[in-house]
Amino acid sequence: MKSGPATAAKIAFLIQGLDAPSTRVRILNLLPHFHDAGFSTTVEAYPNSLRGWFAVWPSVRGADILVVQKRLPSLLEAKFLRWRMKRLVFDFDDSVWLRNRQGDAKVSNKLRRRFAHLMRRVDLAICGNSILEARVRATCAEARTLIVPSAVPAPDALLPARENSPLRVGWVGTAINLPYLVAIERQLAAAHARVPFELVVICSEPPKFAEFRAVRFVKWSEQTEYEEIAKFDSGIMPLADNDHSRGKCAYKALQYMRCGVPVIASDVGVNREWIAQRGAGLVVKEDGWCDALVSVLSDAKKRAQLGAAGVAAVRNGFRIEDVARQCVEAFRGLLAS
């Protein structure tokens, strides 16, 4: 996939996959801004075989900058890319050195070696948050880094008024993260007994609760996602407290904030910094979900204040155009060096 002026500096992207959410958010959504800045781009899926490398190499070679997104090259691939490419960048928004980025989330020695090997060779590591950047620094103190959040579209000028009865608590995510939601079922039920609400789940499949039934499932669609989120009275983002979750980039929380929806999230990773410290919502420990839900749902004024703070936070650095500008400046700096 090629775009942009033929005579412009060329950026090639080797991506996780065209259907991968992180590719859409961190690469594809930014391409129009890169073209507006005068770059040409080519996007290819990261090859899984030698035959795959032969297929993509003609469109990648000769690029002024190669951005590898999230996939960790083998040691041989990293050496080859460093040898053949003028400038090498790695973009990631996850704890890519973990063997299982769900569940027990154990460190993989192979992936850890690949990560360290790559960090010693890239010209720039683009990190989704400060925790991921700290890992780069701990791995290679000399590495050049840039923190670039996983951005959301600019908030609408006017947000819709909400008059839901019952109130709506929303959760948006991929099916692989549904266990985090199911894990707080008892606290959802306890909060529902105190302040009735409807739990709206936007996903590719519904959650499998044991008993909680105040649930409405909405099939995820890129076209209607923000329209549905804007109807929430509160958005929740439960997570386990493990190495994988600590590296997450709070993207779903940013989506809620973009729509003026107050956030309740697990006190894990950057959630306190990006949500609570900006006044956009509450962060809670494992046993705090019931009280937090009741606190937010029972106070319309509080919901309005938290929602407005979330919109302000997004407008102050989490918009697609904001992070695209960061990347453009970084790419121009690499080209000038």
Features:
single chain, alpha/beta, Rossmann fold, seven-stranded mixed β-sheet, 40% helix, 18% strand, elongated
Characterization of the model:
The protein is of the alpha/beta class and 337 residues long. The protein folds into two domains: 2-151 and 319-336, Glycogen Phosphorylase B (Rossmann fold); 167-315, Glycogen Phosphorylase B (Rossmann fold, 3-Layer(aba) Sandwich), CATH 3.40.50.2000. Helix content is 40%, strand content 18%. It has helices at 21-26, 31-36, 50-60, 75-84, 109-119, 130-139, 178-182, 185-194, 225-229, 243-246, 251-258, 271-276, 289-297, 300-315, 320-336, and strands at 2-3, 10-15, 40-45, 65-69, 88-92, 124-127, 145-147, 167-172, 197-203, 215-219, 234-237, 263-266, 281-284. A seven-stranded mixed beta sheet has the order 1-3-2-4-5-6-7, with helices on both faces. The chain has a six-stranded parallel beta sheet with strand order 10-9-8-11-12-13, sandwiched between helices. Helix 8 runs parallel beside helix 13 (289-297) and helix 11 (251-258) packs across helix 14. The mean pLDDT is 94.
